[in-house]
Structure formats: structure tokens, C-alpha cells
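> example.struct
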């Protein structure tokens, strides 16, 4: 039995349609710039008819880089229907460290701002292979520090600051939380790492199982880690699974599907967080593949995934 046979049938329908249009998935496109363009096109098509509420407004800000790094930028989303200080959601997009952008994740950020009634700060971090580790996580930490330092003018209650990211963004979420722990803050009410990319070793059973799903299979992961590390050894800020000390990290929410290459590294990491005394909530979804809730948003499984995830963030954001 292949991994594809284990996918939730309802969630599989849009995946099959995608693979009919793009055999082998995005990573079958060898040229990375072309792959990025293809992903842009698919995301634009998927989101073109999505509602964009008038009460969510956004603006871009330039942020100083960390310790002499080049400037970066963030996009701040505000919910004008909410008065007074709100919780703040610091969002790090996914894309395997080599794909994705603030613009590509625009609809996600709008949805969070709308449904959670919070201010969202989405960070445009540098991508590998042009900018290997530690450039992406340094950008993410610089943006987080800027968010906390400007909380008052952004209308954010600094005691209700949540960090969230999916996939590579989940790995960067955890790594950024580690940097905040190790370098004097800011304090975080919750980190929400969804199917995080955290282990460069590709040794787990699930990393060998997921080879033919078409969404972040084993070959894609090996390629992305090679680009991200650029020939260097991984440290804990590149691959949080390598961290020897997890104590002191913020309360953590992790979810992952059973047909996700990251399943086993995420389960093991969640267990280690619990052992380190970190309040940890873990959800494992039978039949879910990598980012299936994004590809099949109307599936009952996806609805459960998103409702549970939003509830966790809503509680922390107040």
C-alpha cells in the first residue's frame, strides 16, 4: 500500500485534479523560478473568488534587519471592526524554505485577522537557496522583535502575542521562539506550529513512507534541506529537532496528518516538549496529507482541522 492510498477520500479529490494538471506535483518542475511561478498561479486561481472583508485593512512596513542584516518588510493586517488593543498574531508563511511569500499567503492572513479579531503581522523573510540558513530565521526574529517593540502603535496587547506558521513556517516559528527564549524575548503566549519542518536528517518512517503523494514528498524535502543548509551543518535554529534543550519554550500547539512526511518528527518533538515541561497540545489527523486543509478547504476533515487550530489561537489571543 502506498501513502496515497491512506488519504482521506474527500480531501483527495482536489489533489487528484492538481496532479492531473501538474503530474508529479510542484517539485516535478526542476527549475526553481518556474516552480515558484507555478505555485503563484495555482494559489492565485484558488483564492481569486475568496471573500475579502472590507473591515480588514493592510499596510506594509520596513523593518531593520538583525544586527546589520539588510532591512526586510512585514505586512500588518488590522481588523477595523475591533476597538481597543487586540491580540497579535505573528505569521510566518510556509514553502519549504524555498517557496512562498507574504503576497501568496495574503488570504490566510486576512482570514486570521477577520475570524480571530486580531492584528496580524506577516513577515517577508529571505528564501533559500539564494539566502540559506541563518538568513530566514534571522529575518523572522527581527520581525518578531519589531512587532513587540511597536506593539502600542500597532494596537497589540504584548501579553497576547502568538506566533504561527505552517510547514517551513512552522519550523521557523519554533526556531524563532528559540531565539526569543535565548536572546531576551519577546515573550510569547503561544506558538502554533502546523506540520512543522524541523528535521534535516530524513530518517523517520514517515519520511520514507511519503514518496508519491505529490505534495512535499521525500525527494522534495531532501532537495529543500540541501538548499536551505547550503552545505553547512544544521544547528537547532535550522532544524529544531536537533535542539538538546526545549525547556522555556512557550506553550505549543502542533498538528499534523498521518499522510504527512513530517508526521513522525513532529510527534517526537511534541513528546520532547511535554517531557521538558512545555504545555503542549498535539493533534494527529488520520488521512490528512501535507497542507490538505488548504487544498481541500471544504472537506469535513479540513473543517475539523481549521476549527481546532483557530480555537487554540482564539484562546491565546483573548
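> example.seq
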Amino acid at each position: 500500500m502506498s501513502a496515497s492510498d491512506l488519504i482521506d477520500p474527500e480531501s483527495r479529490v482536489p489533489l487528484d485534479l492538481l496532479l492531473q494538471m501538474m503530474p508529479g506535483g510542484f517539485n516535478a518542475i526542476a527549475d526553481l523560478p518556474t516552480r515558484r511561478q507555478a505555485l503563484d498561479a495555482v494559489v492565485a486561481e484558488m483564492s481569486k473568488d475568496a471573500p475579502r472583508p472590507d473591515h480588514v485593512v493592510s499596510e506594509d512596513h520596513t523593518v531593520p534587519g538583525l544586527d546589520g542584516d539588510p532591512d526586510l518588510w512585514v505586512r500588518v493586517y488590522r481588523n477595523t471592526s475591533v476597538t481597543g488593543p487586540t491580540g497579535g498574531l505573528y505569521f510566518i508563511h510556509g514553502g519549504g524554505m524555498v517557496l512562498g511569500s507574504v503576497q501568496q499567503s495574503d488570504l490566510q492572513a486576512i482570514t486570521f485577522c477577520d475570524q480571530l479579531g486580531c492584528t496580524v503581522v506577516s513577515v517577508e523573510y529571505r528564501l533559500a537557496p539564494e539566502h540559506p540558513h541563518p538568513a530566514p530565521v534571522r529575518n523572522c526574529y527581527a520581525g518578531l522583535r519589531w512587532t513587540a517593540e511597536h506593539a502600542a502603535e500597532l494596537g497589540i496587547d504584548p501579553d497576547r502575542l502568538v506566533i504561527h506558521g505552517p510547514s517551513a513556517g512552522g519550523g521557523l516559528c519554533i526556531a524563532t521562539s528559540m531565539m526569543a527564549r535565548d536572546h531576551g524575548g519577546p515573550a510569547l503566549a503561544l506558538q502554533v506550529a502546523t506540520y512543522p519542518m524541523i528535521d534535516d536528517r530524513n530518517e523517520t518512517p514517515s519520511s520514507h513512507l511519503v514518496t508519491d503523494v505529490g505534495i512535499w514528498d521525500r525527494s522534495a524535502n531532501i532537495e529543500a534541506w540541501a538548499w536551505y543548509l547550503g552545505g553547512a551543518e544544521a544547528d537547532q535554529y535550522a532544524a529544531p529537532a536537533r535542539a538538546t534543550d526545549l525547556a522555556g519554550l512557550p506553550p505549543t500547539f502542533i498538528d499534523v496528518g498521518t499522510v504527512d512526511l513530517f508526521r513522525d518528527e513532529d510527534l517526537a518533538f511534541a513528546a520532547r516538549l511535554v517531557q521538558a515541561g512545555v504545555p503542549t497540545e498535539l493533534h494527529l489527523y488520520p488521512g490528512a496529507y501535507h497542507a490538505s486543509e488548504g487544498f481541500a478547504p471544504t472537506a469535513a476533515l479540513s473543517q475539523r482541522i481549521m476549527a481546532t487550530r483557530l480555537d487554540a489561537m482564539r484562546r491565546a489571543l483573548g
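> remarks
The CA atoms of residues 257 and 288 lie 4 Å apart.
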